[in-house]
Amino acid sequence: MLEISSLCKSFGGLQASQSVTLTVPQGGITSLIGPNGAGKTTLFALITGFHRPDSGSVRFLGEDITGLPPEAIAKRGMIRTFQTVQPFAGQTVRENIAVGAHLKIRDRAQALAKAEAVARQVGLGDRLDMDAGSLTVAGRKRLEVARALATDPKLILFDEVLAGLNPSEIRDVIPVINAIRDAGVTILLIEHVMQAVMSLSDYTWVLNQGAIIAEGPPKDVVSDPHVIEAYLGKGMAERIAKREAASA
Amino acid sequence: MKTDTKLLMLIVVFGLIGLAPVLITQDSLLNIVIMTLYAALLGQAWNILGGYGGQVSFGHAAYFGTGAYTVAVLQVQFGINPWIGLAVGGLAAAAVGAFIGFCTFRYGLRGSYFALVTLAFAEVLRILSNSVDFTGAGVGLLIPLERSAANFQFASKAEFFWVIWVMTFAAFLTVWKIGNSRFGAQLTAVRDNEDAARALGVDAFRVKMGAIMLSGFFAGLAGVFYAQYFLYLDPHIAYGAAISVESLLVPIIGGMGTLFGPLLGAAFLHGLSELSRAVIGDAPGVSLVLYGVLLVIMVLFVPRGLAGLMSHLRGGKPPVSRAGGGKGHA
Q: Using a CB-CB distance cutoff of 8 angstroms, which residues of chain A are in contact with residue B199?
């Protein structure tokens, strides 16, 4: 569904993205993990048109969308959310979600009705008339999900929707994401919460210093020595293996 | 407030205003009502772009002056009927809006940068109109007096009242419609967070272009009315900073991004300036000092304007700033 090949981007001397190649198959949940500063969010921005890649290509549903503006990409059915939540403060939850709904729906009343339905789906049904700016962090994360969902997307890119939530809130949101997948929407998520990556995703790509260093089912990837070293430092994979051998 | 309730209120309010020429027989009093409606029209024009779109313009005189000069030049130089000039003036002002919008939004100018560029455009137009012949240069244009309805010059204030009443009502209905449409939802989304709006598929450039053209159109209509009402124009009146200031002062005092804000602001400002004239006399500059003090007070203590204050008193949202919510919002 989404094919990224040899995508490069540098900011001055910093290579934020070094020839990244990855694919997201239709259906299911694919995850993208990596230590802080690995370039995950930059990659999202490159895919969705917020940054223009220096070279390489992004293909979505078989079409080349490299360098298109964000709104054109959104219209094709690929929607991103933001890591730092970006509500339209001063507008109600209903109005916020309706902006997403308006992508496909011209009529105001229909868009508002759709917003209400989506809000219930993500568990915001009781806060429809609240000012989006006064939502809690967990509420804002849900709002990000709801706005994206209201556009009727084919592929959603979630940028750390679980970050900043406490364990019980995470437990509440995971079923919401699963339900979106079950409704037939493909999901690519950036996530730090490993519990979520393990329980949600079918396939994982690991990014470190702007390059893909591993891929595979989440269970295999977390035991990959390259991945352990990227997170914990050089030599750690060896020490862990030794300790496990000793205890076994 | 539900949108249907708003429409009903709008019709009732304009219905009541419509009683003015019946109840008020004194020309000087009716003149105050006319000037208030005219200020509300100008303020509502600014409100579309500044209040709903978050693009704060310091140069709405560019559209006002274009409307005014269009109707005047067409009459004086080409003998074209001012009713035709009314339509052409509005469209010409919208075209100026499209040009300024293209030059600024194309390159992503936001906030104070956008405000400064609009100021510069208005100044350029002022200097141009001061130096070319067909606008009468610095001397200005005097529209010859020929009182007749066919000539958009009425003998009685009541007839002028109806013209400005219709124009202003049309502007307010348009803004009501904006508040109840996809265009309006996208416009306020761009105001509150342009990146988030674009991520949801909102074409921010197109939406802002729509807003600046509509805004320019209504400001142009206000300019046409001004020219026909006073029958005299010069570069300072048409493109001067005073018009730009008035057009932003009215909605800021009344309540940016609200339907009734410009009407409240216009009534308040004109009431105040009449009061100051009665108390202090016609000393030059007094009203400007008052405006300045008022603006400081409003921005500091009532950032959501009179409309926000009123909804707060009725038990609605607290009168906090909407401006604080959005990124790139001056």
A: 48, 50, 70, 74, 79-82
